[in-house]
Specification:
By secondary structure, the protein is an alpha/beta fold. It is built from 12 helices and 13 strands. The protein folds into 2 domains: 242 residues, Rossmann fold (3-Layer(aba) Sandwich); 67 residues, 2-Layer Sandwich (Alpha-Beta Plaits). A 6-stranded mixed sheet has the order 5-6-7-3-8-9, sandwiched between helices. A 4-stranded antiparallel sheet has the order 11-12-10-13, with helices on one face. It has a 3-stranded antiparallel sheet with strand order 2-1-4, with helices on one face. The longest helix is centred in the last third of the chain and has 23 residues. Bound molecules: adenosine-5'-triphosphate (ATP) and magnesium ion.
Length: 340
Amino acid sequence: MKHSKARLWLAHFVGMSDATPVIVCQGLTRSFPSGVALDNLSVDVQQGEVLALLGPNGAGKTTTMRLLNGVLVPDSGTATVLGLDPWRDGDLLRHRTGVLTENAGLDERFTALENLEFVGTLRGMASSEARKRAGELLERFGMSHRSDIKVQGFSTGQRKRVALARALLHDPELLFLDEPTSGLDPAATRDVVELIGSLAKEHGRTVVLCTHFLGEAGKLATRMAVLFRGVLHAFGTPSDLADQLWSAFEVQLDLGVGANEDLLRAIQALEVVEMAVPTQRGVLVRTGSREDIPSIVAACVSAGASVYAVDPRDPNLEDLYFSIEAKVNASGTQARLEAQ
Ligand SMILES: Nc1ncnc2c1ncn2[C@@H]1O[C@H](COP(=O)(O)OP(=O)(O)OP(=O)(O)O)[C@@H](O)[C@H]1O
Ligand SMILES: [Mg+2]
């Protein structure tokens, strides 16, 4: 006991995690007749993390989820999920994981409550326990008034709410959520984002999340994996990604009013300035480094502007995502030119 406390303290002191990763995959590869859907993916996910899988349509996000929860077998590569082999121990694994698939995947012939109860008993819950918890969760997601109605007439958002309730039914340790908020109204979206955050932060649940909403990923994700055409192009915390991908330095100048054409020309005339765009109260300038700030301020003052504040702006997730996309597209164009 003393020994393990000392190890924990030491791990904390040196900034290292003592925990075994919840997911480790190495070289995961899967093709379909149309081509390679996932190419040599290696990532790990720690307990209590929210990993966001990002990328355009067809990037391989859902394929990754399906491989990791054992419903799809890879052509090559290995994975351990909660210490299990997802392809050999799939049934055991599904007792400990909650899955929300892209298209909800409810049984149309059954009511909302029956859909949940059925999956609860499949996951090893007693039917009375499954019924009680299903009722609570349908209430939690604002669906208790429709719990005894067949799901075939449900709207997209109503299906999504029922499917989310089903994913959480057996209180899983690990959640695979494929686009959990697409189709939800704004209030339900906010509720689900807060719920995912609290499941991870307060209850130590681990979440793998596919989303096209970068704001949602920015709020929730501890790390992000960005895929393009099946290939992992970036993996890490937002600040890791910023360090790897963002060499520019942006600064917001508060001038009291938006910069006019003459002032913009004066700033753009400086050799160090890569971009200058007017904002409501001034101008946003992109340069190579913070060393360029004095010359930009001097140019503003010589042009007759008053500078009230200078705020460096960190790149947001959107900046990073589009800079990866631009690099991928540029390398694709380069490869095509070289092949000609
Ligand atoms: N069952 C399948 N049969 C044939 N091709 C498939 C199958 N599943 C996926 N693919 C192909 O694999 C590629 C990756 O698909 P995937 O569904 O993983 O993308 P995604 O990143 O989830 O996209 P989206 O954002 O549109 O959901 C696509 O080109 C897709 O056509
Ligand atoms: Mg998908």
